[in-house]
Write a structure and sequence with these properties.
Structural class of chain B: mainly alpha
Number of strands of chain B: 0
Radius of gyration of chain B: 24 Å
Largest sheet of chain A: 6 strands, mixed
Helix content of chain B: over 70%
Family (chain B): Belongs to the binding-protein-dependent transport system permease family.
Radius of gyration of chain A: 24 Å
Oligomer: heterodimer
Pfam families (chain B): BPD_transp_1
Protein name (chain B): sn-glycerol-3-phosphate transport system permease
Order of helices and strands of chain B: HHHHHHHHHHHHHHH
Distance between the termini of chain B: 22 Å
Structural class of chain A: alpha+beta
Helix content of chain A: 25-40%
CATH class of the largest domain in chain B: Mainly Alpha
Strand content of chain A: 25-35%
Largest interface: A-B, 25 and 18 residues
Largest sheet of chain B: none
Keywords (chain B): Cell membrane, Membrane, Transmembrane, Transmembrane helix, Transport
CATH topology of the largest domain in chain A: Rossmann fold
CATH topology of the largest domain in chain B: MetI-like fold
CATH superfamily of the largest domain in chain A: P-loop containing nucleotide triphosphate hydrolases
Shape of chain B: globular
Number of helices of chain B: 15
Membrane topology (chain B): Multi-pass membrane protein
CATH class of the largest domain in chain A: Alpha Beta
CATH architecture of the largest domain in chain A: 3-Layer(aba) Sandwich
Distance between the termini of chain A: 36 Å
Chain lengths: 389, 294
């Protein structure tokens, strides 16, 4: 049972800053996912937690104990790697027990008992006498997980553990990991570049870029209320559309359209910057963010209002469950998720409606969120109402 | 060599489907002919040595003289019993084994330190180790001779083994191999609290079995074939090694009685240990070389 706190953690490799002063609190028993593009410092952060890298500055505190300079073996954490890191010359059982036997903290009976338990939890009893060579990728990762859980560590650190598996197996293992976490309740820090994995697994998700934390929130909050343009574009596939606009009298004015902004006097729900001080001003330049699934053909839903905009279709991509349109609104490229089997061809001009509750404005320079058309409080009360209803 | 290259090129072309099946058959014939030539070129001297070792005098003046003679048993008996060639072979074996084992121990530790430890000026140290390749033992004969005498090691097995124990080549090959082991395996061991010696014995060495065997074979053959240094530093017949011992089989050279058949019998015997090792361990040996090519 472990709480982990990072204070102003910093790691430099020669003149490259991999982790640039991050503060983070990982709650006891939490499944925290760190996500970001490659080179954003997420793996380095995990390796700092494990003690495999020495921090240049800052501190790591586990349960009130400063472990910044503590050896990896004395931190009582277990790590699962992308390439499984099984010893190729040892059987599954020996792979699992080798570390325990080396540490000398466990009696033989204790080790046997724990291996049996882990084998049962992970359903790997028949893999124990096989060498990694004779196992499939999924089986190897399961044995690697077994090696991590037998030691009953204070925290699991997972570095893209599913990235080497094929798509189908990845989805299956994802569910198993979530289940495993529910049954063990051990604090878990999980690093991935895959935002779907982050959204599905994480109780809270940390989005990182350029060595800094961009936002820490629950997955749905990240999606609905991105704190900045980076998070908005990184989370969600296809990515959020970004359209440059001018703000005039509570409306967003683009070369090709004008959109009325609901609750334009409201601010942004963004940690310290609670509503008010970050709200939008007249005459300000901004970037309007709207997700492809919040744009639709005006003809599909005729009763959602009369505010429409025109777009020219460039390319159509049938995705099966929907039809992805690459369009231009004025000069700005834009993606729209239309209904599957829609009769739309390239060079068509389509009339588009939008969901007024799903509009976002970002500062064009800093990228910070200026405005979300739905306030955080109202979404929470709506959710609460839905729960009670 | 050109033949081999041509062959490789043709095989690649054939795989690409540029050649018809008929052509491939013709090419195969040509290839086999080239290979046969190469094999004959390599085997011929050995075959001659074998044939001569079965003759009475061993003087070859015509092709007929290359047919096997009837003195094989006597020649080999004379070499092994009268000249006590077995004693030289034993010395050679002891020298080679000590060199191989010593080299492996030192090189494994050195490569491990270079790859897995944070040593100040590590790259410079490794460069310095590689630099020693420029100074092989023969270049160091004179100071080495002095040193061995000062230490009182001349005429002992120490004199013919210790100078060979440090090996830049072995360190280099092992370093390359250790670098190819995924760092995550090393880091798992670190997280598990596996100590350095335990890591070496239970993880590193088992994962390097093939390379270690391959390197050992190369080093064994190299050690076994040492001639000049033992000739210089060993002056008692009892401690001499096989390669130098061959000279003693020549017999009465001044009297014009150079007994080639005995020399060739000795040579054949000397050839056997490396040959056997090569045959038994040819697989790991090839693997070692293929790792270097990666």
């Amino acid at each position: 049972m472990t709480t982990v706190t990072l204070h102003n953690l910093r790691k430099e490799f020669d003149d490259v800053v991999a982790v640039n002063g991050i503060d983070l609190e990982i709650v006891d028993g939490e499944f925290l996912v760190i996500v970001g593009p490659s080179g954003c410092g997420k793996s380095t952060t995990l390796r700092l937690l494990a003690g495999l890298e020495d921090a240049t500055d800052g501190e790591i505190v586990m349960d009130g104990r400063d472990v910044t300079a503590v050896e990896p073996k004395d931190r009582n954490v277990a790590m699962v790697f992308q390439n499984y890191a099984l010893y190729p010359h040892m059987t599954g059982r020996r792979n699992i027990t080798f570390g325990m036997k080396s540490s000398g903290d466990f009696t033989d009976e204790e080790i046997d008992r724990r291996v049996e338990e882990a084998a049962e939890t992970l359903d790997i009893a028949d893999l124990l006498d096989r060498k990694p060579q004779a196992m499939s990728g999924g089986e190897r990762q399961r044995v690697a997980l077994g090696r991590a859980i037998v030691r009953d560590p204070d925290a699991f650190l997972m570095d893209e553990p599913l990235s080497n598996l094929d798509a189908k197996l990845r989805i299956q293992m994802r569910a198993e990991l979530a289940q495993l976490h529910t049954s063990l309740g051990t604090t878990t820090v999980y690093v991935t570049h895959d935002q779907t994995e982050a959204m599905t697994l994480g109780e809270r998700v940390v989005v990182m870029n350029d060595g800094r934390i961009m936002q820490v929130d629950e997955p749905q909050t990240l999606y609905d209320f991105p704190a900045n343009r980076f998070v908005a574009e990184f989370i969600g596939d296809p990515a959020m559309n970004m359209l440059p606009v001018d703000i005039e009298n509570g409306t967003a004015v683009h070369d090709a359209f004008t959109i009325q902004l609901p609750n334009a006097d409201g601010g942004v729900r963004n940690g310290a910057k609670e509503s008010g001080d970050a709200s939008i001003r007249d005459g300000q330049r901004a970037v309007l963010g709207v997700r492809p699934e919040d744009l639709y053909m005006a003809t599909d839903r005729p009763n959602t209002g009369d505010e429409t905009l025109n777009a020219t279709v460039n390319v159509t991509e049938p995705l099966g469950d929907s039809l992805l349109l690459h369009c231009s609104i004025g000069e700005t490229p834009c993606k729209i998720q239309a209904k599957a089997r829609s009769e739309i061809r390239p060079d068509d001009t389509v009339s588009i409606a939008y969901d007024p509750a799903r509009l976002h404005l970002f500062d064009p320079e800093s990228g910070d969120a200026l405005y979300h058309s739905e306030s955080y409080a109202s979404s929470e009360s709506a959710a609460a109402a839905a729960d009670h209803g | 060599m050109v033949g081999v290259l041509q062959y490789a090129k043709q095989r690649v072309d054939a795989l690409r489907g540029n050649y018809e099946t008929q052509r491939i058959h013709e090419d195969d014939l040509g290839t086999h002919f080239q290979l046969l030539l190469l094999v004959v070129a390599v085997v011929f001297p050995i075959a001659v040595a074998l044939a001569v070792s079965t003759k009475q005098s061993g003087v070859v003046t015509s092709v007929v003289d290359l047919l096997p003679g009837g003195y094989a048993v006597e020649n080999y008996r004379e070499v092994l019993v009268d000249y006590q060639f077995g004693r030289f072979m034993w010395n050679s074996l002891a020298m080679s084994v000590v060199i191989v084992v010593g080299k492996l121990i030192i090189s494994v530790f050195a490569a491990m330190a270079i790859v897995y430890y944070r040593v100040p000026y590590k790259d410079l140290v490794f460069l310095f180790i590689l630099f020693t390749l420029l100074l092989p033992v023969p270049v160091r004969f004179i100071p080495l001779f002095q040193l061995m005498n000062d230490l009182g090691w001349s005429n002992t097995i120490l004199a013919i083994t210790v100078p060979y124990l440090a090996s830049a080549t072995t360190v280099f090959i092992l370093r390359q191999h250790f670098l190819s082991i995924p760092t995550s395996i090393v880091e798992t061991a670190k997280l598990d609290g596996v100590g350095p010696l335990k890591f070496m014995l239970f993880v590193l060495l088992p994962m390097s079995k093939g390379v270690l065997v391959g390197v050992s074979i190369i080093m064994f053959v190299y050690a076994w074939n040492q001639y000049l240094w033992p000739l210089i530093i060993i002056d008692s017949e009892a401690n001499q090694v096989a390669q130098v011992g061959l000279q003693l089989l020549q017999g009465d050279v001044q009297g014009g009685q150079l007994s080639w058949s005995l020399v060739m019998a000795g040579s054949t015997l000397t050839l056997l240990p490396p040959l056997l090792l090569m045959i038994v361990f040819r697989k790991p040996l090839l693997e070692t070389f293929s790792i270097q090519q990666k």
